[in-house]
Write a structure and sequence with these properties.
767 residues; alpha/beta; Rossmann fold; Immunoglobulin-like; 6-stranded parallel sheet; 6-stranded mixed sheet; 23 helices; globular; disordered N terminus
């Protein structure tokens, strides 16, 4: 039988792994302090003075690279040697990275090293739960450690920059890229954005064993019409400033060295040419000093958007708006930048500023001094078992227990002789990892079926039925070839297999169903017009539940699903849990680790309620807020912040340090949290505010604080939340500026957005 894990073990292991995750690999520059800004600028300017317009355009060009690099005169090799490319993406092999870097340093005129970018979204070799799952931990320090491991593995193979974190707020679960972010709330999203940036970059840009973080997609991408990927976005200034921009600001404040511009148009202006966003907001108001990259073909697409007539116009428009680097899958518009300079469409000063930012990033990373990778050291880093243990811990802490009727969970292994494991995702290693991973190892991935067999050993019989198959996509995904297509399987008679699954459930003491969406049903170019279980999974679920046997439903997905009122007594969302996902699930099902994750989005009852958010504005007839539809209630199935435990918790003694708070000053709120149950467990205490009167209408509730804590049975702890002036202000459409009003604030604390323990305080004009 597998070794049982306690929360005490978990805390110790995670603490040890934090040290491991922060360790440098020894293959990069080991300065205790980064070079000074003056030194960096001097080196960049010296190079800049030697560059031709064509070489400058090359530094502003990033190309996709797949397969062989070509001969000395053709292909990528020839482009690098000619100084026509400054960055590459999708290269993850240390030997090939060294080969490409050697061409740049030995054959190009100015010997400027290449910058290698990659989609390190939730791990490189060690795959962590998907980002929406990491947000469900409500544990920023843990997320920081996970992304530090991802950075260490990436840097070890020669990757210096990730196109992550995605910090777009997603309020429409039809949008496939909900999987990459932190859900619907800007406060939680900001905390996760900052944690990810700190994990990827370390204490400073260029820190050994770390990589540049690139928050994306600037800005508003998550609000695309109908949840359709790439579609236009139309947002009021109030929604943009209060909801969609705060996570980007948090990422910049955490030190992000790069920002990716969005594909789509925001209020009619494409992201790659939005001077107001890229220059006015990002650089002048927020003080961002890093570089901005387009999303794939974002500069070329300025012609598609109808704002540029040709390549030269697109390049001039993008650079003039504040964009520095073009990500090009094919012909790069930046190649026409010298022509745009000759025509006077863009100034040399503007181009030089963009090139300087790229050169400074390369200098900060130490690429001029230590450009090559130690392949042997890379293999050592990628195979570090401590990384797998951290992945297991994150998967444990991200899982959300949605329902647990009759306290079916945790399962009592001593009372079980047979377990039936059923579902198309129960033994699918590729789906367990989730989307947006590329350098994974399927052989070491632990599926739910494998995790349960390892946990139960020979003492319990574990039977298995696939049940049904996942349907094929209507449209092939451009990412299937990169992410690994599903293994070809023999044809399945679903009628017969459903009957067999029912028979296994009837013969077992408990049935564990693993249902949801295949990994390629979510992510980029994977929006869905339905929240139903794909294929015949609902039929399978209903048939197994009808047996009357205890049923545990595990949902492998990253969006809320419509379960058609299933009566499965226990429902747990395990997301796409990563390399150690199956082991973590087994730990949770048998109580070795109690669940403590919370939902980062509101779970609607069906797609007709979408978008459904907890932080709505009070509108006409607020007493009818739950009766907006003629045929059903407007209430969600599960509220934002929801998540059950194997223990229970009590909230009491909510206090505000002073009843009147002068505008511009902080205020402290305290309360007592008590573990009223019988097991040591985690709770996420959440604080919500409502401003009763303001210059503009304010949401009914807004998350403004949270803490995840571990308590032993009977343990009481006083938790304190400090509300800053920034927490009490907002951007007002009426005034077109940030305001903090004199008003009464309602305060709630509890285990979800429906928290009931309440008090008030007032903000008053300073005397």
């Amino acid at each position: 039988m597998a070794t049982r894990r306690s929360l005490a073990w978990l805390a110790g292991a995670v603490g040890a792994l934090a040290l491991a995750a922060g360790a440098a690999t020894g293959t990069y520059a080991q300065e205790s302090q980064p070079p000074s800004a003056r030194e960096i600028r001097s080196r960049a300017d010296a190079l800049l003075a030697e560059m031709t317009p064509e070489e400058k355009a090359g530094q502003l060009t990033q190309l996709f690279q797949f397969g062989p690099v070509g001969s000395q005169e053709t292909g990528t090799a020839g482009e690098i040697a000619a100084g026509r490319v400054g960055s590459l993406l999708f290269v993850n092999d240390p030997e090939q990275i060294n080969q490409l870097q050697r061409i740049a340093l030995e054959r190009s005129r100015l010997k400027i090293p290449l910058l290698f970018g990659y989609d390190v979204i939730h791990g490189l070799r060690t795959i962590f739960p998907v980002p929406i799952a990491m947000a469900a931990t409500w544990d920023p320090p843990l997320v920081e450690r996970a992304q530090a491991v991802a950075a260490e593995e990436a840097r070890a193979v020669g990757i210096q920059w990730t196109f992550a974190p995605m910090v777009d707020i997603a309020r429409d679960p039809r949008w496939g890229r909900i999987v990459e972010g932190a859900g619907e709330d800007p406060y939680l999203g900001s905390a996760m954005a900052a944690a990810s940036v700190r994990g990827f970059q370390g204490p400073y840009l260029g820190a050994p064993g770390h990589i540049i973080a690139g928050p994306k997609h600037f800005a508003g991408y998550g609000a695309s019409l109908g949840g359709r990927d790439y579609d236009e976005v139309n947002l009021s200034d109030q929604e943009l400033w209060n909801i969609h921009l705060p996570p980007f600001k948090a990422a910049i404040d955490a030190g992000a060295g790069n920002v990716m511009a969005a594909y789509m148009g925001l209020n009619g202006v494409p992201g790659a040419a939005n001077e107001w966003l890229l220059t006015e907001v990002l650089r002048r108001e927020w003080g961002f000093e890093g570089f901005v990259v387009s999303d794939a073909n974002g500069v070329n697409d300025l012609k598609t958007h109808g704002v540029a007539a040709d390549d030269a116009a697109a390049a001039a428009l993008a650079v003039g708006a504040g964009l520095d680097l073009e990500m090009a899958a094919g012909k790069a518009a930046m190649r026409s930048l010298p022509a745009a300079l000759k025509e006077g469409a863009v100034s040399m000063e503007t181009v030089d500023s963009a090139v300087r930012r790229l050169l400074e990033a390369k200098i900060r990373l130490g690429l001029f001094d230590n450009p090559y990778v130690d392949a042997n050291q890379a293999a050592h880093v990628l195979n570090d078992p401590a990384h797998r243990e951290l992945a297991r811990a994150v998967a444990q802490r991200s899982t959300v227990l949605l329902r647990n009727e009759g306290n079916l969970l945790p399962l009592d292994r001593d009372a079980i002789d047979t377990v039936a494991v059923i579902g198309p995702l129960a033994d699918s290693a590729r789906d367990t990892l989730g989307p947006w991973v590329f350098k994974f190892d399927l052989d070491e991935t632990v599926t739910v079926l494998e995790g349960l067999r390892a946990e139960l050993g020979d003492n319990v019989e574990v039977t298995y039925s696939e049940g049904v198959r996942m349907p094929s996509r209507l449209h092939p995904s451009p990412f299937d070839a990169l992410e690994g297509q599903r293994q070809a399987l023999a044809p399945l008679d679903e009628e017969a297999e459903i009957a067999r699954a029912v028979g296994l459930a009837q013969a077992a003491d408990v049935a564990i169903l693993v249902l949801g969406e295949a990994q390629n049903m979510i992510g980029e170019a994977a929006s869905r017009s339905s929240l139903d279980l794909p294929g015949r999974q609902q039929e399978l679920l209903d048939a197994v539940v009808k047996t009357g046997k205890p049923v545990v439903l595990l949902l492998m997905s990253a969006r809320p699903l419509d379960l058609k009122g299933t009566e499965a007594p226990a429902v747990m969302t395990i997301w796409y849990p990563g390399t150690q996902g199956g082991a973590a699930v087994a730990d949770l099902l048998f109580g070795d680790v109690p669940p403590g994750g919370k939902l980062p989005f509101t779970w609607p009852q069906n797609i007709g309620q979408v978008p459904l958010i907890y932080s709505r504005l009070t509108s006409h007839k607020p007493q009818d807020a739950e009766r907006r539809y003629w045929n059903e209630q407007n209430a969600p199935l599960y509220p934002f912040g929801h998540g059950l435990s194997y223990s229970t918790f009590g909230y009491s003694d909510l206090r505000v340090e002073r009843s009147q708070v002068p505008i511009g000053q902080p205020v402290e709120v305290s309360m007592i949290l008590t573990n009223t149950g019988k097991v040591t467990a985690d709770e996420v205490a959440q604080l919500y505010l409502h401003q009763r009167v303001g210059t503009s209408a304010r949401p009914v509730r807004e998350l403004k604080g949270f803490q995840r804590v571990t308590l032993a049975p009977g343990e009481r702890r006083t938790l304190r939340f400090t509300l800053s002036p920034e927490d009490l202000r907002y951007w007002s459409q009426a005034r077109r500026e940030w305001v903090q009003d004199a008003s009464t604030f309602d305060v709630w604390v509890g285990g979800s957005s429906t928290a009931e323990l309440a008090t008030t305080f007032e903000t008053v004009a300073a005397r």
